[in-house]
Specification:
The chain is an alpha+beta fold. It has one domain. The protein contains three helices and two strands. Strands 1-2 form a two-stranded antiparallel sheet. The longest helix is centred in the C-terminal third of the chain and has 15 residues. The radius of gyration is 12 Å and the shape is globular. The relative contact order is 0.15.
Length: about 70
């Protein structure tokens, strides 16, 4: 279901469905939710829900994070 949603929305970055341990560790309280991690593993941004406007904001965040140096 997640993969189909990503394909339909043109999302071209990795997505996954978290297991209970990840849900608890990151305090997931809504679906969909996008949690962006820096290269060092720290939580940088959280986006709850989805709409086309958020898609562009998320893409900008991904580009920013990918540009960070270790």
């Amino acid at each position: 279901m997640v993969g189909l949603f990503a394909t339909q929305k043109g999302i071209n970055y990795p997505v996954f469905t978290a297991q209970e341990d990840i849900i608890e560790a990151y305090g997931v309280d809504s679906v969909p939710i996008n949690i962006f991690l820096g290269r060092d593993g720290s939580r940088r941004e959280t986006e709850k829900g989805y709409d086309e406007e958020k898609k562009y904001k998320m893409e900008e965040e991904i580009i920013k994070l990918l540009g960070e140096k270790d």
